[in-house]
Each structure stands twice: as structure tokens, then as C-alpha cells.
Amino acid sequence: MPVEPGTVRPGGRTARVRAAVLRAAEDVLAERGFARLDLADVARRAEVGKTTVYRRWGSVTGLVADLLADMAERPLPRQDTGTVLGDLRAEALLVQRTLADPRQEALLRAVIAAAACDERTAAALRHLHDVRVAEWAPCVEQGLARGELPRGTDPHAVVRAVSAPLCYGVLTSGLVPDVPAAERAAQAAYTAAAAGVYVVE
């Protein structure tokens, strides 16, 4: 059975080639955007044969999808402050710092552009987002156990409510959120959650 490009998780030399190619792809996306991502250029930067890149990934969207899968495998530390509001604030500040990094902000725009024209890449982006939300969901679950939020509150919905306005603002207005904006996002999500907005039946 033929293997879809970019879906194999190899070891040894092949793993090193994959890592080099994905690093190069990430660099190009951050520097030049998705529209100027070229497999031959990525191969040159990664110092591997372009035939290898074409054979393994097949297309620029296949390469971006694999890069997103790789990102999903890199866990991010979650801060535990002891309160739901404190944890949501920590999440918001992490998102704010990420978006304030020119490289990360450019990378976000590039992968969204790639996802807009390819369903497999869109699925990989959704998976990455789901992984990040799942990493922070325990802060809401712990708050539920402490009685800080109403029973039945959806932890994932609360976590998404923190990051969504910050990312949406960057993509629609081009304005990078500052620390006060991050704190407002955390407070708004917490206030809504405490009021039962995210309780599911």
C-alpha cells in the first residue's frame, strides 16, 4: 500500500533528514510566508537532495501538514498558579508573548494560509490547536475540583475562550496584543465561566 507523503515517523538518518527539512520549512514560512514556500529552496537550506523532499512530502501543503504534526509533538509547559484565574492569565500571557514574537506571528499567518487551501493541512492545524487546548484544560478541571467554577463547565471551551480573541485580533487587525489585552482576555473567560456560560448539559 502506498504511503502518503509526510506521514511516516522514521528513525535514524531519515529522522535527521526530516528534522532538517522541517526546520528549513519553518524558517522559510517565518521569513517569506506560505506563498513563497518552495520545496527546492527548502531542500537547499536543509542540505538534502530535492528528490528526497519531493518524494517524501510531495507538495508544499504536505510539508506544512507534517510541520504542524511535528509542532503538536512538542509539549509546552503549563503553569500551575493554584487558581483558575491565575492559570488562565498565565495561558493568556503565553499566547501574548508568542504573538509578540515576530517569527511566531509570521509563522501563524503562514500556516493559516496553507490550511486555507488544503484540507489535510487544515486538519493538522486543528489537531495542533486541540493539543494546545488539551495541555491547558487541566487548569480548569482543577478549578472545578476546587469549586471555583460551576459543575458541568467545559474545560476546553474555557481555554479556547482565552486565546481566541488574541489570535483573532492579530489576524483581522494586524495588531499584536499587549499584556493588558491578555489580562482582559483571561478575566473575560473566567468571568463568563464563573457565570455558567460554558456549562454543558
Estimated structural class: mainly alpha
Largest sheet: none
What form results from the Cα inertia axes?
A: elongated
CATH architecture of the largest domain: Orthogonal Bundle
Q: How much strand?
A: under 5%
The CATH homologous superfamily of the largest domain is termed Tetracycline Repressor, domain 2
How many structural domains are formed by the residues?
A: 2
Reported by name, the CATH topology of the largest domain is Tetracycline Repressor, domain 2
CATH C-level class of the largest domain is Mainly Alpha
Low-pLDDT sequence parts: none
Tell me the series of helices and strands, N- to C-terminal. Answer: HHHHHHHHH
User: How confident overall, as mean pLDDT?
Assistant: 92
Count of individual beta strands: 0
* Tally of helical segments: 9
Helix content: over 70%
Radius of gyration: 19 Å
C-alpha termini separation: 44 Å
Task: Explain this structure.
Residues 38-57 bind DNA. Residues 15-75 form the HTH tetR-type domain. Keywords: DNA-binding, Transcription, Transcription regulation. GO terms for molecular function: DNA-binding transcription factor activity; transcription cis-regulatory region binding. This is TetR family transcriptional regulator. This protein has 201 residues and is mainly alpha-helical. It has two domains: 12-72, Homeodomain-like (Arc Repressor Mutant, subunit A, Orthogonal Bundle); 84-194, Tetracycline Repressor, domain 2 (Orthogonal Bundle). It contains nine helices and no strands. The protein has helices at residues 12-32, 39-46, 50-57, 60-72, 84-100, 102-115, 119-145, 155-173, 179-194. Helix 5 runs antiparallel to helix 9 (179-194) and helix 7 packs across helix 8. The radius of gyration is 19 Å and the shape is elongated.
